[in-house]
Amino acid sequence: MDASVKKGEWLVALAGNPNSGKTTVFNALTGTRQHTGNYPGVTVEKKEGVCRVDGRTLRIVDLPGVYSLSALSAEELVARRFLLQERPDVVVDVVDASNLERHLYLAVQLMEMKVPLVLAFNMSDVARQRGLEFDLEQLSGLLGAPIVPLVATKGEGIDELKKTIVRCAEQVLPVPAEIHYGQELEEAIAKIESVLDENLPLLRSYGRRWTALKLLEGDLEIQEQIRSPQVSDVLHQVRQHLTGVFRESPEVLIAERRYGFISGACQETVRRTVLKRRDFSDRLDAVLTHRYLGLPIFAVLMYIVFYLTFQIGAWPQSWLENGFGYLAQRVGRFWPEGVSEEIKSLLIDGVIAGVGGVVVFLPNILLLFLGIAFLEDSGYMARAAFIMDRLMHRIGLHGKSFIPMLIGFGCSVPAIMATRILEERRTRLATMLVIPLMSCGARITIYGLLIPAFFPPVLRGPMMWLIYLIGIVLAIVCVRLLRSTVLRGESVPFVMELPPYRLPTLRGLLLHMWDRGWMYLRKAGTVILVLSIVMWAVTRYPRPPKDILSAGEVPPQRLELEYSLAGRIGKWMEPAIQPLGFDWKIGTALIGAAMAKEVFVSQMSIVYSLGGEEDLEQLQKRIREDYSVLQGFCIMLFCLISTPCVATVAVTRRESGAWKWAIFQFAGLTGLAYMITLLVYQTGQVILMLM
């Protein structure tokens, strides 16, 4: 017996298709005893939890939702590697009982791996409503695995599932059945098996038949591990033979046989008690996925989510802002005399401001993911992706890419986090790389400063619309470019089942919301805090000599800025940005905007030795005196395209799993901003000269 069984503790893997209710089952089993992270080396989310049954401990790992174990996506690769390398004591496959034939495909692949398998038939109530009746005993015998009917949203069947997991871990349940693929395929599998080296470590973990089957399917990961000329020759021969006989590739033939096995098992054990009729989901889909009504309905629902996120969320956000402001005031007021003023500045302007800059967005993050979780758990988000797919597919993305891009108009950080809904890695990377081109809320402060400074009231609305439109058009162009170069590859077909509508559970919604919120605070917040302190230092040091500071010829704030590292960098970069119509003052403000876009306005206030927002009109007047309308437009254009804020860079690095993509995003968008702004400014100068 396995050592883990002796200790009364077992490793349980929870597998299943997307939309099978797997997460609901995981929450029902583990409750609050769970934590979230990422699998090593990838950005695929890993959830673990603990469940105790009769004095025994079940350590449950929620695998990524996948339709198969073919290792074509990061999620499939992670799920399969976990099963093969970690060797869980039990694998629970969560199956949507109302869509049995589709969901049993994953179960068949798990059976082929000879893992200790339990089938959890979730949504049994929906299956009954659709007139489906199962002979579970007979079906369990055919599959060689126990079946537990569940209604996870109501907690029905969870206790029985726990007991079945324990029985399976104690090895008192049957071994999963073996599928027969027909004479031709079986002979091909046997030929491949005969030339496999018995000493291969692969065979000890995977098994001879399973390895041969994967080679026949053309599994690249398995082929990489078996570099044998003899195996390659035999594999080539049998693949050619099968293709010649059946006029289909072996992988298609294998899939057909699997579905044939599933279909036969279902015909024997599933009975429809009533004629199939148009149920509630069908009637609702007729409206929500309507050719003409679907998009407006989706727009209204997303407007509601954004209203909750950025309007209602503004109340707690203002409370947090006031709280951090009050904290900074109290620290400043009661700072002990004789204690370094530099430490005081570091604490107030660096630490408190840095932490506050992250935490104030927490209400928006929580509300946003609460709204998204509701739409996902209710079954509607799959419909929204279906509606948008045709339009998004033309630019090399999926329908689901539209969701994070839309969120990007509020804030790039949660938008990039929201790309987790995309399964295919190239699509996800392309989406997150262009999200900063959506004008986030922070940029509105820049537009709010510059548009009234240079344009009359009648043109302010159109100018704002134009800036937003430029960002959208550039995002489309960049996606097309990325998908034809660094992220080249055929788009994975957009195949998504439309799950039945269901009312989400409050517990599930709150868990989803808090998981994302805590991850935001714990990881993005840490990086931003460090960079906040760095920005504090570069805008404060080195200090000007006391004799120059006391001369009073230049206001102290501006003098300090000029002497600081940020100011010197601004002076140093002035020759490079002059062709864009910028000077060192704009350059210095852009350095501050790299921390957070809204810092641009406060940096310009320091440059002109003004106070805060109460001097906004005075600041606009001074800017209008120093710069032309063309320069003002170019500043907005550059801020739209360039250097996403450090929070965006940090989240891109975390979600992409590599600094190279964060650096590529940062450098690529900055380079693009430079080229486009240069073209616009120089062309504008020529036109003005000719007028």
What does this structure look like?
- Residues 1-6 and 610-614 have low confidence and may be disordered.
- Strand 5 (90-96), helix 4 (100-112) and strand 6 form a beta-alpha-beta unit.
- The chain has a seven-stranded mixed beta sheet with strand order 2-3-4-1-5-6-8, sandwiched between helices. The chain has a two-stranded antiparallel sheet with strand order 7-9.
- Among the domains are: 3-169, P-loop containing nucleotide triphosphate hydrolases (Rossmann fold), CATH 3.40.50; 183-272, Helix Hairpins (Orthogonal Bundle); 521-690, no CATH class.
- The termini are far apart.
- 41% of the residues are buried.
- Helix content is 64%, strand content 7%.
- With 691 residues, it is an alpha/beta fold.
Structural class: alpha/beta
Outline the low-pLDDT stretches.
Answer: 1-6, 610-614
Instruction: Summarize the amount of helix as a percent range.
Output: 55-70%
Shape: elongated
Global mean pLDDT: 80
The N- and C-terminal alpha carbons lie at a distance of: 89 Å
The biggest beta sheet reads: 7 strands, mixed
Percentage of residues in DSSP E strands: 5-15%
* Tally of DSSP helical segments: 34
